[in-house]
């Protein structure tokens, strides 16, 4: 499930030139991404599995991707809130963002010391949604100071930004509400996270040629009525195949599927490596994944 790669170093006597933000440092050996699964349960946390949340790490940059119920605790096994570089939220369903509420208390009213608010990339309206829950009075002048805890940037289709050594690209996807998928590119690897979505061209395009696709598989079958808003395991396999992903990591497996069943159903349709993103698991994501799939 987890691989290892060598990391190059630059001699101390040779100053490293300043690279343009987001560009690979050509003097360093490319380094793969590290994905740590904080939780992957749907739609509520289980005793041994929080809801959706992931830590993406690379060269000292650490990003909390989705903050589902119960993920703040295991996040701190790897990085304290004081040292986190950013948070990215796919959509405003509680199983993907609820732990922003307790993170707010930690950032403003506890022992967490930061020089500036924590960067938060999230759908439009996030600040008001958080404030609506956190404000303890109806008086407008006493609205909870959400912006003192988080420096919020609202996502839009095609949004791009650079955080440390990582370039983040977001695309709007199809979940019956504002929702986004994420591509994380580093000098030594690329990871795409579906968020919650039905299969859609935007996700396939975003995932094109990625080293690993972290894709939800919430649905056991096609919806009886209403619009489709999730992937089945077969859908996840089809998205991985169409996007030429190096490997497929299934997450957010729904309550009417077992992880083993989801992996088997996807593997029947996709010839690359298929794994379950179980809580506490860690994956090294790099070019070796794409090479193995070719």
TrEMBL record:
Disordered: region residues: 1-26
UniProt cross-references to Pfam families, sorted A to Z: Lactamase_B_2 (PF12706)
InterPro entries found in the cross-reference section: Metallo-B-lactamas, RibonucZ/Hydroxyglut_hydro
Domain Metallo-beta-lactamase: 50-244
Compositionally biased residues, Polar residues: 1-10
Highest rank taxon of the organism: Bacteria
Matching SUPFAM superfamilies: Metallo-hydrolase/oxidoreductase (SSF56281)
The protein's name in its UniProt record: MBL fold metallo-hydrolase
Native source organism of the sequence: Arthrobacter gallicola
């Amino acid at each position: 499930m987890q691989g290892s790669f060598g990391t190059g170093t630059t001699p101390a006597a040779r100053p490293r030139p300043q690279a343009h933000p987001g560009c690979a440092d050509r003097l360093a050996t490319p380094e793969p991404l590290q994905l740590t699964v904080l939780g992957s349960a749907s739609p509520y946390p289980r005793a041994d599995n929080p809801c959706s949340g992931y830590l993406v790490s690379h060269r000292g940059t650490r990003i909390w991707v989705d903050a589902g119920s119960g993920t703040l605790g295991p996040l701190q096994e790897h990085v304290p809130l004081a040292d986190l570089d950013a948070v990215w939220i796919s959509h405003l369903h509680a199983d993907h963002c609820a732990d922003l509420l307790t993170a707010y208390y930690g950032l403003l009213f506890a022992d967490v010391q930061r020089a500036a608010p924590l960067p938060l990339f999230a759908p439009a309206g996030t600040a008001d949604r958080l404030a609506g829950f956190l404000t303890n009075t109806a008086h407008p002048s006493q609205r909870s100071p959400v912006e003192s805890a988080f420096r919020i940037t609202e996502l839009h289709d095609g949004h791009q930004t650079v955080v440390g050594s990582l370039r983040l690209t977001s695309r709007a996807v199809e979940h019956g509400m504002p929702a986004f998928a994420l591509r994380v590119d580093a000098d030594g690897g690329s990871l795409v996270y579906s968020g919650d979505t039905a299969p859609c061209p935007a996700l396939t395009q975003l995932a094109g040629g990625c080293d690993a696709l972290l894709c939800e598989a919430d649905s056991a079958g096609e919806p009886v009525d209403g619009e489709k808003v999730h992937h089945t395991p077969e859908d996840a396999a089809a998205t991985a195949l169409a996007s030429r992903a190096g490997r497929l990591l299934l997450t957010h497996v729904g309550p009417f599927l077992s992880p083993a069943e989801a992996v088997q159903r996807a593997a029947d349709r996709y010839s690359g490596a298929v794994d379950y993103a179980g809580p506490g698991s860690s994956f090294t994501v790099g070019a070796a994944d794409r090479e193995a799939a070719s």
